[in-house]
């Protein structure tokens, strides 16, 4: 199951917890873009787009953060583990 990728308890402590620092190194051992011959050909573009989008969001929405005390529920699928909803807040002093 692809949904179980990156959740191997023998490799990652507290594998169900999202810890972005876990995959910080350049040669991170994860399956976000597949593996081997099935590795996504657009992975470098996707990483660059995500970095640019997050840099712009963080510069335009001061103190962007997850809304506290929200309940995270996953999309009911056997393939991916996306959230049904992800609420954020930011300081709106500039608006």
Automatic annotation (TrEMBL):
It holds the Pfam family p450. It comes from the Bacteria. One of its GO terms (molecular function) is oxidoreductase activity, acting on paired donors, with incorporation or reduction of molecular oxygen. Keywords: Heme, Iron, Metal-binding, Monooxygenase, Oxidoreductase. InterPro entries: Cyt_P450, Cyt_P450_B, Cyt_P450_CS, Cyt_P450_sf. Transmembrane segments: none annotated. Belongs to the cytochrome P450 family. PANTHER family: CYTOCHROME P450 YJIB-RELATED (PTHR46696:SF1), P450, PUTATIVE (EUROFUNG)-RELATED (PTHR46696). This is Cytochrome. It comes from Scytonema hofmannii PCC 7110. The lineage of its organism: Bacteria, Bacillati, Cyanobacteriota, Cyanophyceae, Nostocales.
